[in-house]
Design goal:
By secondary structure, the protein is an alpha/beta fold. The protein is built from 10 helices and 17 strands.
Length: 473
């Protein structure tokens, strides 16, 4: 192995030096090893990716007034309960469905044929919270990638709503925060991105049946899986409409991102491997969450992404869970603290207090900022290379160094790879090693002492999410 530069971490040791440039970029030694780094000023993330001019322009087109108009229009359908009327042109989930589809088709019309918008329907037979056979319909817009169309990213919100009694399909259920806010985010991103050319495919989904039991998203996830669709990231935005908590405090610049550790879809064999290597914090979903922080937590979005190491809130669930069940990396965006008087409530005034999920309790500038976080993440994912495949740590021999291997990506603009590592007690990657256009690299550090990952880089400098290597040959 080539001689390391002075101050480089060596085998069986990890040095706490701070050899970084003024911009916070880790220095790379002659041996291709990265010096310890202090990060980029945003939580010490050496893997952070600054938004380029193209992304800044995209984020600048996100319009809080349009988002407000969408939320108010969805609330004006009276109720969007999954069991509500589907053939009334003015009221009920059917009217909302048709309006969303009409808007998505308008966006698709300016895409030059790259975007399509369609209904995805099935009949749900009687089941929990569905007493009679019911048609459940998702509205799906697909913006096909120009370089890697088979690699897919999904952003979703649910357009159904409810009141206190989850089976009440007739009372007014405006559902402004839960979840017209998430649907408005999805539709605004579809509008802004429709006229652009992402390298990979982006799916914008307004799903139904969430309040009755995640029916629409489960149907979508199972269809994707059955078709062998390569979804490398899915985000649901559910209750992202307000920065105000139930005690009146506000946190208008934070959004929570719920991300599971141990995969929902993990097999017994995979569990044995995870236990042996200590990968509880390195699932594909956790790597996706780190990517969100890297690209979505900056001055261009104006937001702090608070990653929560939990699949969802206590006693709650969202539309990312069916995707997790199918083995896809998926996470949930939610406002920083909820006001329960304005979700899952009958619209009423009680002791002088207004209850109900009404538009006047939404913060539309806040929704726009959350939309920018999603936009930064989705666009960077779609323009960057895909997550490296078949990443593994060679374990055929007992050694005190670490040999890493991975499969070569197929992207035409692929420039190379980076190895990242951190101490096992760290939650974020702390070191980066540039290794070039190769499929193997040996690091003079013991695999027993630190965690490693691999990410791809294209010629524009965009980085993929990190792949966590498993033991193999």
């Amino acid at each position: 192995m080539p001689e390391q530069s002075a101050g480089m971490p060596r085998r069986r040791t990890v040095l706490a030096s701070a050899a970084v440039t003024a911009a916070g970029v880790p220095l790379i030694g002659s041996a291709g090893q990265a010096a310890a780094a202090t990060g980029d000023g945003r939580g010490g993330r050496v893997t952070a990716q600054a938004p380029d001019r193209e992304l800044r322009k995209l984020l600048g087109e996100i319009d809080a007034d349009r988002i407000e108009a969408t939320v108010r229009r969805l609330a004006a359908f009276g109720t969007r309960h999954t069991l509500s009327v589907q053939d009334d042109p003015e009221r009920g989930i059917g009217a909302a469905r048709d309006w969303i589809l009409g808007e998505m088709k308008k966006y698709a019309a300016v895409s030059g044929g790259r975007m399509t918008a369609e209904l995805q329907s099935y009949i749900q037979e009687p089941a929990s919270r569905v007493p009679v056979a019911t048609r459940i319909t998702n509205v799906v817009a697909t913006l096909r990638g120009s370089v890697a169309p088979d690699r897919v990213y999904v952003v979703a919100g649910h357009y159904d709503s409810r009141v206190t009694d989850v089976m009440d399909a007739t009372s007014d259920a405006p559902g402004a925060d839960d979840d017209a806010s998430g649907v408005a985010l999805v539709m605004e991103l579809a509008r802004v991105m429709a006229k652009r050319r992402p390298a990979a495919t982006i799916v914008f989904a307004a799903v139904a049946g969430e309040e009755q039991g995640l029916y629409g998203s489960r149907y979508a996830a199972t269809r994707f899986k059955a078709a062998g669709v390569d979804i490398q990231g899915m985000f649901t935005n559910d209750i992202i409409g307000s920065s105000r908590a139930d005690d009146g405090t506000r946190d208008p610049y934070t959004v929570r991102l719920f991300t599971e550790g141990v995969p929902t879809s993990e097999t017994p064999a995979q569990a044995n491997t995870r236990r042996s290597v200590g990968g509880e914090n390195d699932s594909a979903t956790r790597q996706l969450a780190r990517f969100v922080s890297d690209v979505g937590d900056n001055e261009a979005t104006g937001m702090n992404v608070r990653v929560v190491y939990r699949r969802d809130r206590y006693l709650r669930g969202g539309d990312h869970i069916p995707f997790l069940e199918q083995g896809y990396p998926a996470a949930r965006f939610t406002e920083p603290a909820e006001d329960f008087a304005h979700q899952h409530q009958d619209v009423r005034v009680e002791d002088g207090k207004q209850y109900g999920d009404l538009p006047e309790f939404c913060d539309f500038d806040y929704i726009a900022r959350v939309t920018r976080v999603n936009g930064a993440v989705l666009w960077t994912l779609a323009q960057a290379p895909g997550t490296p495949r078949e990443a593994r740590i060679v374990t055929s021999n007992l050694t005190n160094d670490t040999e890493l291997k991975w499969a070569l990506g197929t992207e035409p603009d692929l420039a190379g790879y980076e190895v990242v590592w951190r101490e096992t007690t760290e939650s974020e990657w702390t070191h980066v090693i540039k290794v070039g256009l190769t499929t193997t690299h040996t690091v003079d550090l013991s695999k027993d002492n630190v965690f490693f990952g691999v990410r791809a880089v294209n010629r524009d400098g965009r980085r993929s999410p990190v792949a966590f290597p498993l033991p193999g040959n």
